[in-house]
Automatic annotation (TrEMBL):
Role noted for this protein: Catalyzes the deamination of 5-methylthioadenosine and S-adenosyl-L-homocysteine into 5-methylthioinosine and S-inosyl-L-homocysteine, respectively. Is also able to deaminate adenosine.
Family from the record: Belongs to the metallo-dependent hydrolases superfamily. MTA/SAH deaminase family.
Amidohydrolase-related domain: residues covered: 42-392
Name of the encoding gene: mtaD
PANTHER family: AMIDOHYDROLASE-RELATED DOMAIN-CONTAINING PROTEIN, AMINOHYDROLASE SSNA-RELATED
Origin organism lineage: Bacteria, Pseudomonadati, Bacteroidota, Bacteroidia, Bacteroidales
InterPro entries registered for this protein in UniProt: Amidohydro-rel, Deaminase_MtaD/DadD, Metal-dep_hydrolase_composite, Metal_Hydrolase, MTA/SAH_deaminase
Cofactor(s) it depends on: Zn(2+)
Top class in the EC scheme: hydrolase
Organism: Butyricimonas hominis
Origin: domain of life: Bacteria
Name this polypeptide is given: 5-methylthioadenosine/S-adenosylhomocysteine deaminase
Annotated Zn(2+) binding sites: H51, H53, H200, D288
Annotated catalysed reactions: S-methyl-5'-thioadenosine + H2O + H(+) = S-methyl-5'-thioinosine + NH4(+); S-adenosyl-L-homocysteine + H2O + H(+) = S-inosyl-L-homocysteine + NH4(+)
Amino acid sequence: MNENMEVIKNGSILIEKNCIKEIRDGRIEMPDAEYFDAEGMIVMPGFVNTHTHVPMTMLRGYADDLPLHTWLNDHIFPAEARMVTPENVTVATRLAFIEMIKSGTTCFNDMYFFEDIIAAEAKKAGIRAVIGESLIDFPTPSFHTLDEGIARCESLVQQWYGNDLIHPTVCAHSPYTCSKQTLRKAKDITEKYNIPLHIHVAETRKEVEDVTAQTGASPAEYLYSIGLLDRNVIAAHSVWLNPKDIELYARTHTSVAHCPKSNLKLASGIADTDAYLKAGVNVSIGTDGTASNNTLDMVEETRFAALLPKGTRYNPEAVSARTALRMATINGARALGVGHLTGSLETGKRADLIVIHADASNMIPVYDEYSAIVYAANSKNIRSSMVNGKWIMQNREVLNIDKEATMHAMQHLVNESRKCNQ
């Protein structure tokens, strides 16, 4: 799967250290090589999840079936104030990584608190991470003042800048929780280090109405007016974009992190991704956090990304399987500024790949590989995963995280939280 979307029916991939050295038809003979037999499998780039809040696994199912602003302000923010500690973030992050790895994610983009812990855990797990401390105009579990938050943010960037596996970014929560000054400070850091800016934009109709009332412009227009939209920006959700907003995204090369399941569950709306793509906007796919999704399964998310535009546009040709899979891999890597490293299987790129059991009963017969992956596969078909030339899962066993200990620790965390609420 490369820029030309080629399929090699019986090919081999030669990996040296952390890079793909050669891809070709037939078997590559190397006397001293370690061979992995993938007969009956599809080998493809791992999924790139462009919008997550991984420690929210501790809040999976905590407050369901509520409007976003009620869910966030009355339930999630208060719960985070009680539960989000360094110790709990460690446990919740490990649980998230188990789920992500087992469903084929090899790279994710995270916005949360105590991101230094998340980065360190990602390094241990061997998963590629784009991470940034969430900046917001009120106290959070990881900082009490905005200046402290800015300092944490820049410290994280300096700690991981240039790392082989962990890629720092800057996260400004949203136009409705961050002042113009906060947004500009966040943008200044991204320009100083030439790294991405991650932000929620136009997620709900209420957000658009509120921002428009306050600023006289839509969220996208407002961000453009203060110099925030450009090729380094990942705008999560972007559900409520008007034609002018779409044109601004395309002109500035701002990328969208489309989160179809979270948007559906919170009744935020359905982004017109078919129109975005046709206008030249780079659209990628994210899961959002498990408090609003409630999974981190990119296989399922990609299927939703392909099916929803067909239903809303009454057009079976809207967002094809190939386009959806491109959104979940190539487009995602491009959005995160790591397209030169990952997102496709090409000579010179990092060996970030997954192995899918194509001979499984739920997938055969395979007439078209792209259709089979998007419309028929489930996460259990993903047998092995490699990041940066190293296996992080083999035959469904996650190699660098103790699953049983993590699940036990999560249950203990939840039990203790329930005691505090009684």
